[in-house]
Amino acid sequence: MSPPSLRLTDLAFAYPDGHQALFGVDLTIAPGERVALLGPNGAGKTTLVLHLNGILGGGDGAAGTVEVGGLRVEKRHLREIRRRVGIVFQDPDDQLFMPTVAEDVAFGPANFGLRGPALRERVDEALAAVGMADAADRSPLHLSGGQRRRVALATVLACDPEILVLDEPSSNLDPVARRELAEVLLGLGRTMLMVTHDLPYALQLCPRSVVLDGGTVVADGPTRELLADTELLARHRLELPYGFVLA
């Protein structure tokens, strides 16, 4: 039996200034699951995500464990953990910095030791998966926002991660680009943790949602059921767009 793609056990964390950001968070995501992480600003979502690839944790103020595919997130495993946890940032400019799209997508797997025809094949596969194969030789600077978001996703896919972590993937996208990205994500068949304030996008992409507030998990269940709970949403400063009706 395969281990969970992600398991957080009693995860707690306080910053050096004494601010306690997480209080004993437990979360398990099975292989292939798509889960939305919801919550108001300041809930601890970013702090949680930064524990998944070892940017935070392992020092003073930290407690509990994080495992990715059965491998514990700790210093001696960080190189492999950072391959297994593919974080797609909200701003593509944080990930795209090479002269061409293909060079951007090749950067990650090359850093992990892939070379020659195997590297070219990995780049081609990642770009094809996001519908950007024709843009391989273009500059990322000349792409639309939606195209750059998909190329940023390809840079992560090229490393063949265990779990995709998506930080506000729909932000600043027009309706067509938003739909195109959703179609790509649904077609990947990958384990995903999507951090978002976009509740309709969470409903479209993630059958399960987890609500984090005040550094604790306050709800975990089917996305449609959580979004239908108006009292839950109001308590945790979450709100569906005006006029949006759950089908």
What does this structure look like?
The structure is a single chain. The protein is α/β, with parallel strands linked by helices. The chain has one domain: Rossmann fold, CATH 3.40.50. 34% of the residues lie in helices and 24% in strands. The protein is built from nine helices and ten strands. The chain has helices at residues 45-52, 78-84, 101-111, 116-129, 145-157, 175-188, 199-205, 223-227, 230-235, and strands at 6-14, 20-29, 34-38, 62-68, 71-72, 85-88, 163-167, 191-195, 208-213, 216-222. The strands form two sheets. Strands 6-7-8-3-9-10 form a six-stranded mixed beta sheet, sandwiched between helices. A hairpin with a 2-residue loop joins strand 9 and strand 10. Helix 5 runs parallel beside helix 6. The longest helix is centred in the middle third of the chain and has 14 residues, at 116-129. The mean pLDDT is 94.
Topology:
Elements: E1 6-14, E2 20-29, E3 34-38, H1 45-52, E4 62-68, E5 71-72, H2 78-84, E6 85-88, H3 101-111, H4 116-129, H5 145-157, E7 163-167, H6 175-188, E8 191-195, H7 199-205, E9 208-213, E10 216-222, H8 223-227, H9 230-235
Parallel strand pairs: 3-8, 3-9, 6-7, 7-8
Antiparallel strand pairs: 1-2, 1-4, 4-5, 9-10
Helix pairs in contact: 3-4, 3-5, 4-5, 5-6
